[in-house]
Amino acid sequence: MFHYILQFKEIYILLQNIFKVRAFYRGMKYAHWIKVSVFAKEEESDTLILQKLASLFPFSIDKLLKKEIALGFFEKKICIFEVLLKKDKEMNAFIEFFLGSMNMEEKNILLSQLDSRLDEFLHFFIRIDKRDFIENNVISITDSGDCFHIKISVASFPKKRRTAKKVVESMIRNSMKRAV
After folding, report:
1. In a domain, 76, yes or no
2. CATH number of the domain that 157 lies in?
């Protein structure tokens, strides 16, 4: 009898989690926060990089933008531009706009590299090639350091890697459906 109660409880918890996850996807809650940042080296145009950073968003980032100045190798000045999104409305608008701006090939790259782009804290990382985006206005995924950095704190319940992967996959696949 005790064995059956234990099985019933496990099945009940499993079903509860499945339905919560499905309801969660319908609610479009993909992230707790999103940080987008880019470095501008001394020899690069701050204003051009700032314009390109702003073009990643479907809304004004004037109030959200933080600028920090750091020193790099040989005491060269580096400007760090950072935008932190915390409101669901802004995050959803950014995700929809950003993923909508990517081509299918880049989305497939994200899906195929999902494991390596999701860390143990359930942060999903995307790097956009800075030169390609500035010169050609093309969003291309890169692994190099000279890039626009996007860090998404994935909202998953339960807070497990497997669930977070499903959330990110759903986010990308939903953008693929909208593009068709």
Report:
1. no
2. 3.30.1440.10
DSSP state of 156: -
Burial call 109-143: b when 16+ CB within 10 Å, e when fewer = bbeeeeeebbeeebbbebbbbbeebbeeeebbbbe
Class of residue 46 by CB neighbours under 10 A (exposed 0-12, middle 13-18, buried 19+): middle
Label residue 39 exposed, middle or buried (CB < 10 Å: 0-12, 13-18, 19+).
Answer: buried
Percent pLDDT > 70 in the chain is 83
pTM exceeding 0.90: no
Residue 24 pLDDT: 36
Mean pLDDT of 90-113: 95
Dist CA 6 CA 3 (whole Å): 5
Task: Find the domain containing 134 and state its range.
Answer: 2-30+85-179
Please check whether residue 132 lies inside any domain of the structure.
yes
Q: What is the pLDDT at residue 13?
A: 53
| Domain count within the chain | 1
Q: Is residue 147 part of a domain?
A: yes
